[in-house]
Design goal:
InterPro entries: ExoRNase_PH_dom1, ExoRNase_PH_dom2, ExoRNase_PH_dom2_sf, PNPase/RNase_PH_dom_sf, Ribosomal_Su5_D2-typ_SF, RNase_PH, RNase_PH_bac-type, RNase_PH_CS. The protein contains six helices and nine strands. The protein is α+β, with helices and mostly antiparallel strands. The chain is globular.
Length: about 240
């Protein structure tokens, strides 16, 4: 039995509320169990300097955790400087979401996603990717409604979920007690069509077999289908 009482293949409850901020071109608050992330999308009418004159757009991300998102207060990174963990996560979010975007259709502009963790209970990077996609979708809708972009830049849904091996069993959507004790921990990013974008797997306390990897992939596919359904419901 998992600490939360969930079955091995059960997700935590997922809700996505859109339009939660006044000024951002796209925004949502995603809640995956006790993990809550505010995602906002900002449209910039110029691309990064390295893409100037190429006709290509860009999607990038910034990620951060509020001081009391966790059990004890963390100093703000604006004061102490960005950690390697933060840099790695925001690069992952940007890579993941660019995989679902036609950068030619977007044109020479940049979308910046800000993913701010209000409350953390495991899987914050996965929630940021899943919610970030919704904010991005809303920003694209604004561009299309205004006639600035004539072809939809969104190629497919992008969602992410964690899977791992806890107490010798493969499980879906790890919360903090499981994540902190998992023998194997992984993050899976998939498209709505089920194609892989990125897989991060590591042996935290025990190695894992190819068969176990396949089982975790199956769980991730199921979890991402649930998340894509939540994205669709939020935008309906």
């Amino acid at each position: 039995m998992r600490p939360s009482g969930r079955q091995l293949g059960d997700m935590r409850p997922v809700t996505i509320e859109t339009g939660v901020t006044r000024h951002a071109e796209g925004s949502c608050l995603i809640k995956v169990g006790g993990t809550h992330v505010l995602c906002t999308a900002t449209i910039e009418d110029r691309p990064p300097h390295f893409l100037k004159g190429t006709g290509l757009g860009w999607v990038t991300a910034e990620y951060g955790m509020l001081p009391r998102a966790t059990h004890s207060r963390m100093p703000r990174e604006a004061k102490k400087g960005q950690s390697g963990r933060t840099q790695e996560i925001q690069r992952l979010i940007g890579r993941a979401l660019r995989a679902g975007v036609d950068r030619v259709a977007l044109g020479e502009r940049q979308i910046v996603l800000d993913c701010d963790v209000i409350q953390a209970d495991g899987g914050t990077r996965c929630a940021s990717i899943t919610g970030g996609w919704v904010a991005l979708r809303l920003a694209f809708d604004k561009l299309m409604k205004a006639g600035i972009v004539t072809s939809d830049p969104m190629l497919d849904h992008i969602a992410a979920v964690s899977c791992g091996i806890y107490a010798g069993q493969p499980i879906l959507d790890l919360d903090y007690p499981e994540d902190s004790e998992a023998g194997v921990d992984g993050n899976f990013v998939l498209t709505g069509a089920g194609r892989l974008v990125e897989v991060q797997m590591s042996a935290e306390g025990a190695t894992f077999s190819r068969d176990q990897m396949s089982t975790l992939m199956d769980l991730a596919e199921t979890g991402c289908q649930t998340l894509v359904a939540a994205q669709k419901a939020a935008l309906a």
